[in-house]
Protein 1
Amino acid sequence: MKLMNTMKVLLLFCLVMVGFGVMLVGCDSTDEEVPVGVENQVLIKDFKFLPQDITVTVGTTVTWVNKDSVIHTVEGSGMDSGNLSKGDEFTFTFDEVGVFDYICGPHPYMTGSVIVE
Ligand SMILES: [Cu+2]
């Protein structure tokens, strides 16, 4: 009987530790900057454009902000940001309706689109 109680305590201890682990992971993700709430802004983060597709109305100025420690660019459809270091911003005003695709020059697998309506 005593052995069973010890097992129960151990099992409970394990469950608590797993619970802590989940909590820690949860805290970690809430610390990250979430790309919501800022209108007409695209974050460049973790080698991605966030959001990848953004829809705006004609005449809107879109701002890209590099949140990565490496240099990224916004290139294509008439845009050329030049090198963006961490914290750098690039803005572009869309005066025509259409779909404007772009990539990051150093990392062409990073793609994004601005849909202007
Ligand atoms: Cu890049």
Note: Residues 2-31 form the longest helix (30 residues).
Protein 2
Amino acid sequence: MAQVKLLGLSGALRKDSTNTLLLKEAARLMGDAELTLADLNLPLYDGDLEAAEGVPASVKTLAEQIAAADAVIISTPEYNRGLPGVMKNALDWVSRVEGAPWAGKPVALMSAAAGRSGGDRGLVMLHTCMTPFAPKIVGGPEVTVAANYNEFDENGQLKGELYVKNLTTLMATLRAAI
Ligand SMILES: Cc1cc2nc3c(=O)[nH]c(=O)nc-3n(C[C@H](O)[C@H](O)[C@H](O)COP(=O)(O)O)c2cc1C
């Protein structure tokens, strides 16, 4: 297949986010992929805002990016054993856009977090929250990077051999699902 158009959604907004690094690593390890990072710095969902002004332009852009991508990769930390509000808010807003951009879309989920579980409780919640939208979430090795602050080198690359191996396999599975 030609170069894969990947859209990346990070559940953390900060510029040095390890989840954003993980998305970049996923694209690199997929090989021949072009990664666009989505901007999830959206207003909080507010039905009054939607009624008065419609869906914000930033949300429409996100929905269009999802629809246009060959595949979407999502990486999120867990916050207090759950899904960060940034990610849930983005999912809720996109659900208000017509056209079901997630339907049938190949998606790979992953996480990075400071705790020993690598954010897997947040990841389970993310999986659950996405089921209404019927994406094609690929199975494969779970990539949940624990002690994230210690797992990326100075170039932002994953240090652990097993993480690299599993992420490479996950991305090959995603490519095959396109
Ligand atoms: C509000 C908040 C709650 C957190 N809760 C958890 C948690 O439940 N489990 C965990 O492993 N880390 C938790 N952390 C630490 C995050 O895993 C850590 O900040 C991580 O680096 C966030 O991902 P990022 O590098 O992409 O920003 C929490 C951090 C914040 C700010």
Note: The beta strands are 4-10, 33-37, 71-76, 106-112, 136-137, 144-145.
